[in-house]
Amino acid sequence: MEIKVSLKKVKSPLVRKVTEISDEKIYSCYQCGKCSAGCPFADQMDLLPNQVIRFVQLGMEEVLDCKTIWVCSACFTCRVGCPKGIDIANLNEALRLLHLRRNQDHLKLGKLPREELLKLPQIALISSLRKYTA
Amino acid sequence: MEKDYFEPVIVGFLCRWCAAAAADAAGTSRLHYPPNIRPVRVNCSGFIDPVYILRALLEGADGVFVAGCRPGDCHYVDGNLKARRRIAILKETLKTLGLEDQRVVFEYISTSEGSRYAELVKKFTEKIRGLGPSPLKKKFLTV
Amino acid sequence: MIKVNERIGVFICHCGLNIAGTVNVEKVAEEISKCKGVVHAEHYIFMCSDPGQEKVRQTIKEKKLDGVIVAACSPDLHEHTFRSAAASAGLNPYRVEIANIREWVAWPHEGKGEEATEKAIKIIDAAIEKLRDNMALLPVEVPVTKKVLVIGGGIAGIQAALDCADAGLDVYLVERGQSIGGKMAQLSETFPTLDCPQCIETPKMTAVAQHPKIHLYAYSEIEDVNGYVGNFKVKIKRKPTFVDWDKCTGCRECMKVCPVKVPSEYERGIADRKAIYISFPQAVPNKAVIDAENCIRMKYGKGCGLCAKNCPSKAITFEGNGSIEEVKVGAIIVATGFDVMGVNSFGEYGYGKYKDVLDALQFERLLAPAGPTSGKVLRPSDGREPKEVVFVQCVGSRDPDNWHPYCSKICCMYIAKQAMLYKHAVPDGQAYVFYIDIRADGKGYEEFVHRAMTEDGVIYLRGKVGKIVEEGDKLRVYGVDTLTGRNVVIDADLVVLATAVEPSKGIDDLARKLRIQLDQDGWLSEAHLKLRPLESLTSGIFIAGAAQYIKDITDTVSQASGAAAKAIALLSRDKLEKEPIVATVDEEVCVGCGNCVSICTYNAVELDPELKVARVNEGLCEGCGACAATCPSGAIQLINNTKKQIFEMITALTRRD
Amino acid sequence: MELLYFPGCTLKTSAKNFEDSALTVASKLGLELRELPRWNCCGTVYSLAADDLMHQLAPVRNLVRVQELNRDKLVTLCSMCYNTLKRASRLVRRNSEKLETINMFMDEEQSYEGRVEVFHFLQTLRDEVGFKKISEKVVKPLKDLKIFPYYGCLLVRPEEEAIDDPNDPTVMNDLLKSLGAEVIDNSFKTVCCGSYLTVDKKEVVAEMTYKILSAAVKDGAEAVTLSCPLCHFNLDFRQAEVAEKHPEFKRIPVFYFTQLMALAFGLNPEVCRFNLHFVDPKPLLRGKGFI
């Protein structure tokens, strides 16, 4: 599937918004892939972390639909390894927030079985609500 | 042309081996900084007689920016250290004159530190802008 | 000083649009033409061009100018150009001043035309004020010592020393290690030709040893440097070897019996040497040294002594025979080379805990036919032949957040070579290379990498390695291939890290002694990156090889010959002209306090014992002006930088319109 | 010595065993952990967004509570609380503008001045008490007990907030050694367990649990120790799912480091509240004669 790259796309609001929320230097990424190579959850992701950055660099809004941003547990392994000092977890958070700030919650606690809910400790519930809901 | 805000006049003394070369490098890299600094290129910061700094302040400069090589890098071995000491003493004197000693600064800048030069000049300019016009100048001009 | 009736010409350069794009050059010319004494002011597109210089020459003659201001780029670039042009039109070069309105005005103030124009006028105005009192000067002539000091005995130093010596100059070659040869002598084979260093470097090492003009100071360091271009005085410290080199024949009987084993620097720690050692078989000089830190006899002052007993020529003395010698040279070539980061810096790759994770220089030793394994590739942990080897590029390089921002430049090529040589040694093995970009920009380089990929079947994976973990007797390498967009796991037998190349340890200390500068990454600063890459900013000190920045052998040798040519050209003259900007004393004013005498770093000022006035030795004075700043009466001044001149400049710069 | 201590939500409920054992162990070492008065939720996860200060209010308010007592140190037990409070304290210390905005927002509180430093209890043990002193208190050395210290993420990442080397932390290794236990070390000690993914992607967490624990067991571990209630839940509770999916998987008890200290100090095992564990540690401990 070919990607149409154009001025409009590269200058799209996506780059601006992600930069605004995250304050990360998106274009300093030179795609070495170390973030992906070290990511413990890479095999659960549809896009590798370095690909997420690439999509953002090219202004490709479809990155918002990827599974990766919801699988990231913000463990910061990528951030520690990144040669360019980019916090990829922060970038994923920015992409999640683009959903959440439109009140598009990712997590609906009501859908979980009651039995499961009772067993989950507060720390789990609160942290997932913080990451997955507006 | 009257400006509605204060534009300080800053005299710079830059040693030709390090600081002036760093200023060149800043320009070559197109690093932008406020144009208020007007530099003089000297052989060595150790050449700078405190009298020059006083003269600049008396003539109407709001700040004086002096820069030499990093310690150990001085082309003349230790001219920069001589400068640092002289300026430290001068700053004490300035206080007794009722002048903020922040109006004079001495920095070590190496040849390769173009971006640092730009950064330091920017900061110093902002600092002087914040301090406002030199009180010495006012006195001098009204006499 | 004769006060001339002022006729100053001002030439303002557009530098294409570099200056004129920001500074209003017409306005500058108009304003400046109003200044006192200015009889000519014009602007032109490129003052440094032939027609531009011709304008200066013509105008000097036609308008009988006695002073010239060129408002253009940094004086470091074209001061010499315009001073020469003026001289050829009969004007003393010291009656020319440069006003830097490009680097100091136009470029940093792009988009601020009005302020920039005003600032340019101020800076030119100040230059005119200085020029008014500039004296016409003749250069000071100094004699030249036709000898060269070369610091560093790697391939750069060797080449530079041979070239200088072949030109008839005496050369002092100083090497801190036991032998010359440098990093090149540690390599297995060299890209892209696969020559072995034994075949191509050893003959040059021997030539150094035999050259009548080269004085080799091995196991020696620079203690102190004084003087100036043409006349440096250098103290060389011969470190104690505890062996009488006049007697030592290099037979190595001592090494056979020495009971102490120490990781060998030459073998980069993958094999041992003895406490008494000669670095490697082809070492030059072929003389033993005792490593006093590890030798039993040296440590305890008694016992052992087996080497001395076994020495057929009774050369081993255990006596501290170090010395300091002073030599005089006219030029210095710095060829101190580089070091390589060790694997123990990298936590994600095991901090050096895994025996089978090597740096590339260690792997060179495994590949080298004369190495500890005789060229057989065997794992350090268990001596097995590795069947799968992973190479990782850009380890510590291109990594501004953790290590070095720069590209180490040689890794792409030597990794291709190592992968290739590994395949030659283990034909049924497989090599994998993790890379970010391949930089193969030399003659035959791209083809060489192509050969590694196609003929030797090296698999190139585009991406970095996240971590390496020991899994049984394998190393599990977690990497990524960004081209397929998949993470990659390889169970490797051996991993080679292309660790970053760094400036040679101790270069900061040496640079301080030489009074030359380092850049932000610790490499030697050249006078101009493009146009004067072989010179330091200190006249008479030249730079060769990787000390300036990472280079492969081809570039190193070219640059070494270039630096040698620079030194030879300098020393081909019988006298050198020295800047006449020196201190002078107005004896009428001098009170003889002696402040200037004590502050002078060069002992260039003396107090006349009878008249009690200061006297300056022009040959020794470097023109720093420290004396002028300390003189309470203003009697001692720096020529063409007098108090009056500086005051007038300050007045010009602070003038408000 | 009295230390101000921030418990956090889970230490008051399902991780009561962590708190109880910690308080007892501390007092044995001459430390009084005084609970921070009027503490509130730390925020649980540090908010990364640069344009969002709302989520920094909760952690900063806790720092104000410390300041109100004229104190400048706060100790945590939970790794997540540590990370969230520490990062928030750094953020406002480095960024005076943000601090000002936060102070304006919380105008009902004292203005925070940015001086409070946040520590994890492991740092206190290492840097103030010292492992030598700890080993002196040991009456029942955990001899022959092979333990895998699991650090997880937030004690060691990002590196600015790390309490130890991010690539190869050893603080718990050293603690275990001072208790007489045998340390099983491998590189999974800093691999993320999946954290909050446990709520709606529990299969991901179960898989990570499997990877981490089976590597530890393969290397000979009989138990795991850690310092985070969320890691504890994941590595302990999710073993049920792991065992379902991987029949060969052998269950292994998971301890808070303070529980092991309590055992080694010979304190009443009641403070360890082993009933709160999903994988019962008692058979192992009985077998080794520790209870």
Task: Explain the overall architecture.
- The complex is a heterotetramer of chains A (134), B (143), C (657) and D (291).
- With 134 residues, chain A is mainly alpha-helical.
- Chain A contains nine helices and no strands.
- The termini of chain A are far apart.
- In chain B, strands 2-1-3-4 form a four-stranded parallel β-sheet, sandwiched between helices.
- Chain B has a single domain, classed as Rossmann fold (3-Layer(aba) Sandwich).
- Chain B has helices spanning 19-28, 50-59, 79-96, 114-131, 135-142; strands at residues 10-15, 37-42, 63-68, 104-108.
- Chain B is built from five helices and four strands.
- Helix content of chain B is 45%, strand content 16%.
- With 657 residues, chain C is α/β, with parallel strands linked by helices.
- Chain C folds into five domains: 8-137, Rossmann fold; 147-239 and 322-337 and 504-570, FAD/NAD(P)-binding domain (3-Layer(bba) Sandwich); 253-310, no CATH class; 339-502, 3-Layer(bba) Sandwich (FAD/NAD(P)-binding domain); 579-639, Alpha-Beta Plaits, CATH 3.30.70.20.
- In chain C, 50% of the residues are buried.
- Chain D is α/β, with parallel strands linked by helices and 291 residues long.
- In chain D, the strands form two sheets. Chain D has a four-stranded parallel β-sheet, sandwiched between helices. A four-stranded parallel β-sheet of chain D has the order 6-5-7-8, sandwiched between helices.
- In chain D, helix 7 (171-178) links the parallel strand 5 (146-149) and strand 6 (182-183).
- In chain D, helix 1 (16-28) packs across helix 11, helix 2 (57-68) crosses helix 3 (79-94) and helix 3 packs across helix 4.
- The relative contact order of chain D is 0.14.
- The model of chain D has no long low-confidence stretch (mean pLDDT 95).
- Chains in contact: A-C, A-D, B-C, C-D.
- The interface between B and C is large, with 53 and 54 residues.
